[in-house]
From TrEMBL:
PROSITE patterns: AA_TRANSFER_CLASS_3. It comes from Oceanisphaera ostreae. The gene is argD. This is Acetylornithine aminotransferase. Its EC number is 2.6.1.11. GO terms for molecular function: transaminase activity. Binds 1 pyridoxal phosphate per subunit. Belongs to the class-III pyridoxal-phosphate-dependent aminotransferase family. ArgD subfamily.
Length: 404
């Protein structure tokens, strides 16, 4: 078995067909570069979908992993461990939160947040307060609860009866939210910048109005910062630049720099509703994940890296504007920091996947956010040289599509 030929065809033979991966199989990464089985080199503007915050095999993360791997990998949650307590302390110190809960992914962090919101409402306001309001085109994970809260029916339909009392309104539409909120609302769930839904930033007045409505109806405000958190927008967490503080915040993706981990942050008063036995995760808060996440969190939570994100955003916007001046295919470039989306104009509407495929053919890894947006979510410390080279490859891809 060790000499088995590992090819893309093997995926079709042995893997459940819920994904349709690219033909190339990456085998090695360093910084913002990735090499495939044929030793071809790619520039990575995708970051594992906003995960690889320090790029591939960053020495700080490799060092933390190696060191912890020789100490302690796993203990059950009947015990606690030093890396988990250190990471929780640092996250609490750096944010509004007073308590942290660890799990393995963004979906699990959101699952915990939604369960906590329901439990808190039940304990404090009674059994009628169960409504969760989220936003159309939102994305909160793939568990049945989180995919139902996410406002994309294509992901949640076809699995039988959905969890109840979940409603959706359009993002940035405060009147629509106001119309369906009441004292039966237990939580409003929002991304402080919609990711999968098309890289859509919130209006500042709208975020403040959402916070006010939650206060008015004794509803919790949950910020899903799975994609925007840990430096992605140029702040440690996106809420810090919005002038609004959530009651519960979820974090994952960049939190582990590539190692699976998720976290839910909240206040002591709200956290008290998750008493022993009410929720848990076998692997959540395991020492290996927390040691790597602590190293990633420390590395990102510096002025140099966070200010560097804003500087890199400028490099991207400048380069993309130059490409668009030649090829006229983008209506706008949306987003903040290093979560950016090139919105295709009317002429190229619905063809984002073609741009992704053309980029891959030029040995550049990008993402899409729906059918109309090409998305970039690279390493937060990607070099100017790698950005320049990646954008040159992107321009060649754009030219091929525009010129037919």
């Amino acid at each position: 078995m060790t000499n088995m030929a590992v090819t893309r065809e093997l995926f079709d033979q042995v893997m459940v067909p819920n994904y349709a991966p690219a033909e190339m199989i990456p085998v090695r990464g360093l910084g913002a570069r990735v090499w495939d089985q044929q030793h071809r080199e790619y520039v990575d503007f995708a970051g594992g979908i906003a995960v690889s915050c320090l790029g591939h095999c960053h020495p700080v993360l490799v060092g933390a992993l190696k060191e912890q791997s020789e100490k302690l990998w796993h203990v059950s949650n009947v015990l606690t461990n030093e890396p988990a307590l250190r990471l929780a302390s640092k996250m609490v110190e750096a944010t509004f939160a007073e308590k942290a809960y660890f799990c393995n992914s963004g979906a699990e962090a959101n699952e915990a947040a939604f369960k906590l919101a329901r439990r808190y409402a039940l304990e404090h306001f009674g059994a009628e307060k169960t409504q969760i309001i989220a936003f159309n085109q939102g994305f909160h994970g793939r568990t049945f609860f989180t995919v139902t809260v996410g406002g994309q029916a294509a992901y949640s339909d076809g699995f039988g009866p959905k969890p109840a009392d979940i409603d959706h309104v359009d993002y940035n539409d405060i009147a629509a939210l106001k119309a369906i909120m009441s004292d039966k609302t237990c939580a409003v769930v929002m991304e402080p910048l919609q990711g999968e839904g098309g890289i859509i930033s919130p209006e500042l007045d709208y975020v403040k109005a959402v916070r006010e409505l939650c206060d008015q109806h004794n509803a919790l405000l949950i910020f899903d910062e799975v994609q925007t958190g840990v430096g992605r927008t140029g702040a440690l967490y996106a809420y810090m630049n919005l002038g609004v503080t959530p009651d519960i915040l979820t974090s994952a993706k960049s939190l582990g720099g590539g190692f699976p981990i998720g976290a839910m942050l909240t206040t002591s008063v709200i956290a008290a509703s998750l008493k022993p036995g009410t929720h848990g995760s076998t692997y959540g808060g395991n020492p290996l994940a927390c040691a790597v996440a602590e190293a990633a969190f420390d590395a990102v939570n510096t002025d140099a890296v966070l200010n560097g994100v804003k500087e890199r955003e400028g490099w991207y916007r400048e380069g993309l504007a130059a490409i668009n001046a030649k090829y006229h295919c983008f209506a706008e470039v949306r987003g903040k920091g290093l979560l950016l989306g090139c919105v295709l104009n009317e002429e190229f509407k619905g063809r984002a996947k073609e741009f992704l495929n053309a980029a891959m053919a030029e040995q550049l890894m990008v993402l899409i956010a729906g059918a109309n947006v090409v998305r970039f979510a690279p390493s937060l410390v990607i070099s100017k040289e790698d950005i320049t080279e990646g954008l040159a490859r992107f321009e060649r891809a754009v030219a091929k599509i525009v010129n037919g």
